[in-house]
Write a structure and sequence with these properties.
- The chain contains 3 helices and 6 strands, in the order βββαβαβαβ.
- By secondary structure, the chain is of the alpha/beta class.
- Helix 1 packs parallel to helix 2.
- The two termini are about 15 Å apart.
Amino acid sequence: MRSAVALDRAVNHFSASVTDYHDCSVIVLDGELDALSVPLLQQMLGGALARGHTHLVIDVAKLTFCDSVGIWALAEGHQRAEAAGGRLTLAYVHGVLKRLLEINQRAGVLPLEVEFITTLEW
């Protein structure tokens, strides 16, 4: 199953699509993950978990911006997947997002212990 949703405002471009595989959902993010777009990500994460897809892969290759609200949404998604017996993996983490996640992990500020991967191999 594949679905896509887009937000396109003057100050914010964001789209997300989800593709389901067995017990895994791959969510592809494109644009800016911030307070305006986080509800869409949360909806997609919740939908995947509700469908029994406990292993979540978030592809952030096309993410151009992520603020603290976006980071907290990823942390929440990780916690929800873990509570359901699964995991959350971030694919293609790069740039400022990678740096922010590394800093937060080292400082212990966020309960986000996700795996970073650079390729999706099935």
